[in-house]
Amino acid sequence: MHYCNVLPKRATLRLVALLLALAFVFPAAPVFGGESEPAAATVPQRLVAERTALASGAEIVTIFGRSSSGPDSPIVAMLTDTLGDEDPANDQLRYVWVFTYCPPSLKQRVLACIPFYYARTSARIPKAGATPPIVHDFSRYRSSAWKSLAFYGAQLAVLDPAGLLVRAGTRTYLRNESDYRGAHLENALSVIQAFRKNPDAREFRGPGVDASLGQLVKRGKVGAFLGKDQLTAAARKHFSKSRKNVARNWELLRQRSEEEGLFFEPIASTSESAAHAIVWVSADEIERSPRKREFNSRFLNISSPWSDERLRQWEGYTRRFYIEPSGRYSAVPSDGSTSVEMIPLGIYGLDFPRIPALLVDFRSFFNPKSREISGRALDDVGRYLLDATPFGDAKFFVLKRFWGIFSRRKGIDISQPTRATAYAQLATMVSLAEALDPELNSIVNNALRRLRTNPMQSRWDSEAEAARTQYDALMAAAKSGELDKRLERDRAAERVRLEHGLLGRTLRRVATIGSFGLYRPKADSPDSLERYALTRSMRTHVSLLEEVAATPHPIDVAWAPEKYRESLDFVLAHGELAPPDLAPVLASIVRGSDDVETQVIALECLARMKDGAAHDQLAQLGSSLDSSIAVPGSSSIAPGVRAAQDKAGRVPVAP
Amino acid sequence: MIRVRWVVSSFVAVLLLGGWVARAAPLPDSAANTRLIVVKVDGLPQAAVDAYVNRIDPRTGRSVLPWIRHLYYESGVRTENFYSRGISLSEPSWAIIDTGQHSLVKGNFEADRNTGDTVDHLSFVGFYLDSAKSQRVFPPAVEALDACRTPLTSDAWQFEDRETGIQLLRRGTLWFELFKVGIAPASRGTIGQRVGDILIGVNETEIWAKVSEERFVEAVRDPAVRYADFYWPFIDEALHDDNSEASLRGALSNFDRMLGRIQQAIAESGTAGRTVLAVVSDHGSTYDVEGKYSQGINLIGYLERPEFGAHHSMSRGGPLANYELEGSALKPFASAIALTASRHSFYLADRPGQITCAMDYDGNERAQLYLRDPDLARLQMLWRALRAGKLDARSYEVAGRGAMAILDRRRAGWSAEAFELGEELVALARRGSALRRELAALEAETKRARPRSSESSAGIAPFAGRSALNHRDPYRDLVDRGRELAVEVFRTDKLRNEYGAFRNSLATRSKVVSVEAFVAADETALFGFREFGRTLDARDLAAYPVRLRDIVATDAGALDERASFVTVNYLEAFTGIRIRNSASAERGTAPVSWIVAEMDAAATVAALGAAGRHVQTIDRAFLVSADRDRQLLMLYRTADDGRQLVTLAPISRFSADSPTGAYEFDLAAWRSGLPFGLFEDESLKTGGQDRSAWLSAEHDLISWRDGVHRTAEGLAVVGFTEVATTAYRQRFDELIARATQADDKLLLRFERRRRDAVATDLFLHAAPHWNFDLKDFNAGGNHGGFGRSSMHTVFWIRGGAQTRIQAGPLAVQAPYDGLDVAPTLMEAGGLTTGGALTDELKRGGFRSFPGAIVKEAFRP
Fold first, then answer.
1. Residue B477 belongs to what H/E stretch?
2. How high is the pLDDT of residue B337?
3. Residues of B in contact with A563 (CB under 8 A)
4. What's the rounded Cα separation, in Å, for the pair A221 and A145?
5. Per-residue pLDDT, A28
6. Min CA distance, A235 vs chain B (Å)?
7. Strand order of the sheet with strand B816-817?
8. Same domain, A194 and A280
């Protein structure tokens, strides 16, 4: 059967018109009912950690959102592989679980293949005892990135030319999956970043953590090209941008609310700073204002409250606020303040590029939903109705790009990036039931339920339940040894990579597959296990020495020698495992340190390293250092250096 | 054609400048050959440094800011109480620091009241675009300084001996550096690194920092370079965006490491013994240490409102400019000046280009307002009413009389101004012709002087060349002089056109002698679109006409101006703003803390006398008002020895409502809650004297500074004095007196007129943690005001064994400010001894500095 890839023009246009109409219509159905209750003061969220040790030498750190009205809610967990020893240098972050992330069901996966399907499915609770999936594996970052890249290539070369159905289905699925996973990972990132300020967050403050978090920031294909420094830069840039977005949007929303006679209330959450806000209108002011009172909806993106008859007869949720004698609105009463009933108009996410993102419109549930799907709808129309491709139909993509630049610059909330992360953060807050009073919490919960636009998403309340179920399953897996097995498999794979080159690994695999599993490589020897642990430690020590060497000279201004002496001693003891690019680092330390003992040890490290690069550095140092320092192998050793060596109990190293 | 040739020549010259600089031979180590390296860091609060420098990083075992600690806390000299002079704003502050002279540049954005021409001193892109079009060779602020014959400190070294980095006040451009910034992402590191950098998003800030630092470090390493400076804007940027600890600490750490690299470069140059390394900043920052946001208001939005006069406004960028297409990829070269027309305009709804208000503000803690001459506003309202044809005969007659009364009372002034301007424009025309002749001659001379490799030419002595760049190389001197001349020709023509139109406007108005002629005149000929007219005083601001209510006659049949026009009291309007959405009770709801307006000195003396306080004479007076009950007078007098003396007097209920226009107010006692908060501030140092007595007494600025510098806002006394200073007039007067040619006198008078024309009418000071937002939102830290946190910044200095700087560590407690930097640096750099300028320096335009040398920093 031949599938025509191009729809008749008129039908295309009608369908586009219908979709656009659906996308941008604002039905007048009120969303909420409920009686007003006295205001509950909003309480800042608290994050706490729980640590679970594994028998194989690892620790799971689970971050919970503390709830005063119910059980604490698990949000994210990370496993640190400690090898079961006391040496923190060989610790390694391994796995990330995000408990609100449920692996989609078959039904969800099928629906996720359908373009223009912008709705959630029913509740999805994972089976009790089913170990939650690892959402990110730090040690497989690069291979995952290459796999993504390879799949992307296959998408372009094989799937896209296979016809509209295949192309649309696969691309839509991948986008939904990426958005779904991405939203939860972003939420986890913001929780981890907030938790890092906690005094208990020792695992999240080490020097390599930013690079690890950078992997979460730069997921997908690009990861294949990013080095450690770039991942660190990406993470820092991400958090910095997030803070700036929140700061800017906070002010933007506050000032817009002020200009339109509304009230702005930030909501504390699990992020570093309040990343959401509610905008309210005074019921009294509605009464007093003429229906034709001017209202500029720019950046607020809601309809005028002054001309809305529903608000003039409002019987829905209200909350009491207070006007201080100075005219300032406040959530708490004070001397001389008068109370005023406020009606909620909208909830906004502040951690969003350029503008505050409308998440909940209390008068129109479809308003935020239509904005959320507008970008996707535009993409889907272009790709699947107009059958446009970037190279074949450049005009469409140029226009789309132009629209993107225009709408971003002007802050028009159409075709903006997905606000899935802002929703995920709000959902977390709502599930903890801390930031909003119970009735409002329930109303928002209901609203959020209807606002999902991704078939892979479940209902909010089911996600909270799923989180608890998945956490319990993870703990069970930790206790039963399942996680230990997984960890050991991954360690073994790393040891194989360490011990064998590409050819060796390929031959081993061929042998295992060819013998249908009969051939099993020998178990790792104690030497191999030790080498593996030492190699991991070496990475940490090398990283520290690189950081030290990059400091302006003299190094001792910024680094006390004892703070990196341990790393030098390690390299000295295990120089044969040191990478060749450590040689210039050590040479820089020799040149840059004023501490003779440090210089001597660094020189000895170079001598210990058995490669040409180290020898070259030694040769250069021999000609450039002053005579007070002895280069190993050189005949002149100044008394000061000898004394330092004696004090250190060292014997000069022979070349 | 000449212009094209000069563009090509200048391009070649720039390439040569970028790649080939003739340096003098290395000089031996000695005090006479001192090298001066200056790091100019924008917006570094001393308090932020203090908060971190003593914190130990457990990872490193050293300070969180190890290099700052090593260089200036464990050795070296730092002034613990160093402040901005004037407003804590970049351009005016750097202009003072870089010249050592009183404030000439008054804000980051200046508008010429006569022509409406505007200058955005922070528009780096604007300057480079103008330079590419041969319309500028130096930034506008440097042009203004040159017009007043005020050199930059860096000018003291010949071009070949100095290296100045990209910064706000700098001679020339660095196109090659910009080019390097542009290609840096694709040209640095391995292929993988380059691809990765592009994938994570090019960080222009980092690249900029790297490229400009590389150039600076190269200069520092070169022993022949005797002066090098480097501008570091990233702390200010970081604080504005978000004042979280992560952001601030990150910015400070980067700066600290950069200092370390500079110090390393000094060591590697082999000249550590004779090198002075100074760090200076233009202002601090007011930010919340817990990361709470600063709150802003949109002032232009208020000015659009009927109750504020419904003005058509002009500003730099404009509110929410970062959400408009101008300046984006879709409109990259659009004007940076924003014109905001009010929908509610009372009489100019059909003329949105008629600007009635301009605002100098930049998203920080202060704003300065230009308002149109109220007589021009009244005249235009009357003109429109008379032309509309809706007045009855009686009203028409009264309105006509009213217009003529205004014209008659201003005629003499306008005529005189038109006449003087006419003389100046003729001189300008002659100057233009002379410049063209000089340019032609220079072109020929430059061709003849082209150097051949076999020849070596004698160097030019300092300040003996023709170019402002103080070259030693004669050929380069000619080339750069040619570029400067070409730009001078352009600017002369431009000024002639702009001021010519202004003069015509003055002349047209002054020649109208009948109602018929008035009504028949063209509106644009009478009222230039951006002509603001004279500066306003407190009387004008207390009753600024915004709308013609009705034509009301006095008993004598004249127009009753008070009854006929609806007015706005700007002395109370802004301080009366209240914001409901204020994040915390401590922030309060009043974003504008106080305003300042100039008063008529004679009327002030008379009013003081009527209130029971007799003063002999004052030169100038200003009203500082928080509200009707909390006001201060600032009274200025010049002592016989030239010192400026300032007296503060608390008053209340200032008004200028009386039919005679006389001021009226009540004298008040010193108490808490007055502007500047001096009475209740425990940090006020009165030397044991009674607080009220000390505050009421007349003091010079040094005494004021010594007494108030630790208070929360008391530096406003010294700071505002600097804002309002007209010391530049004395400089122009001296130059006019010294000039021998009539045309030179006229041209200097013209430049003085242009400087006078940037004076503003109303100064607004934000409350703590409030700001006046502009293109975007400054939710982080802010500055610009007189709060101590915004004014308190850094000036550190250290020198090698052969320099005269103390080894330290020394923390100087005496207060110093921006005026004291230039004399100190020139002394440290070995150019002056005991502050005495050499004849050479005087030949270069340097004159005695009003500020002091930080004597504590020098060995006895």
1. helix B474-511
2. 84
3. 59-61
4. 5
5. 33
6. 10
7. B792-793, B82-83, B816-817
8. no
Answer yes or no: are the C-beta atoms of B816 and B785 closer than 8 Å.
no
Inter-chain residue contact B777 with A240, CB threshold 8 Å: no
Do B291 and A273 lie within an 8 Å CB cutoff? Answer: yes
Rounded to the nearest 5°, which phi and psi values hold at A356?
A: -70, 135
Contacts of A562 in chain B (CB under 8 A): 61
Query: Is the distance from CB of B163 to CB of B219 less than 8 angstroms?
Result: yes
CATH fold for domain B2-88+157-170+186-290+783-838 = Alkaline Phosphatase, subunit A (3.40.720)
**Which residue among A237, A272, A552 places its CB closest to the CB of B201?**
A237
User: Which residue among A218, A254, A557 places its CB closest to the CB of B581?
Assistant: A254
- DSSP letter at A119? -
The continuous run of DSSP H or E covering B302 comes out as helix B299-303
Amino acid A36: pLDDT: 27
Which residues, including other chains, have CB under 8 Å from residue A102's CB and lie 6 or more apart? A124, A125, A126, A458, A463, A466, A470
Spell out which residues of chain B touch residue A258, defining contact as CB-CB under 8 Å. 579-581
Our CA-based measurement puts residue B294 at a distance from the nearest CA of chain A, in whole angstroms, of 8
Instruction: Give the span between the Cα atoms of B314 and B112, in whole angstroms.
Output: 12
Which pLDDT score, from 0 to 100, does residue B384 have? 97
Element (H, E) at A571: helix A562-573
Q: State the total domains in chain A.
A: 4
Burial B664-675 (b: 16+ CB within 10 A, else e): ebeebebeeebb
User: Token pair of B241, please?
Assistant: 């965006």
Q: Most A CBs within 10 Å: which of B52, B73, B200, as the mutation test of the A interface? A: B200
3-state secondary structure of A276: strand
Alpha helices for A133-223 (secondary structure H): 141-154, 164-195, 209-217
Contact assessment for residue B621 and residue B634, using Cβ atoms and an 8 Å cutoff = yes
CB of B767 closer than 8 Å to CB of B65: no
- Per-domain residue ranges of chain B: 2-88+157-170+186-290+783-838, 571-766
Does A238 reside within a domain? no
CA atoms of A6 and A9, how far apart (whole Å): 8
| DSSP-assigned states of every residue in A350-391 | SSSSSSPEEEEETT-THHHHHHHHHHHHHHHIIIIIS---TT
At residue A228, the pLDDT reads 85
CB A190 within 8 A of CB A275: yes
SS3 B544: strand
User: CB-CB: which of A207, A225, A250 is closest to B293?
Assistant: A250
In the β-sheet with A136-137, what is the strand arrangement from edge to edge?
A46-54, A58-66, A73-81, A92-98, A136-137
Closest partner residue to A326 (CB to CB) among B267, B581, B588 is: B588
Find out whether the peptide bond into A325 is cis, omega within 30 degrees of 0.
no
Cα(B275)–Cα(B265) distance, rounded to whole angstroms? 11
Return the amino acid letter for B310: A
| Residues B280 and B795 sit within 8 Å (Cβ to Cβ) | yes
pLDDT by residue (tens digit) across B595-618? Answer: 999 999 999 999 999 999 988 889
With a cut of 50, list the residues of chain B below it in pLDDT.
Answer: 1-31
Using the 8-state DSSP alphabet, how is residue B817 labeled? E
**Is the ipTM here above 0.95?**
no
Do A371 and A402 fall within a single domain? yes
Dmax (CA) for chain A in angstroms is: 97
Low-confidence ranges of chain A (pLDDT < 50): 1-45, 634-641, 653-655
Contact between A413 and A50 (Cβ < 8 Å): no
- H or E element: which one contains B707? helix B701-708
* Summary count for chain A: helices (H), strands (E): 21, 11
Q: Which domain holds residue A618?
A: 526-647
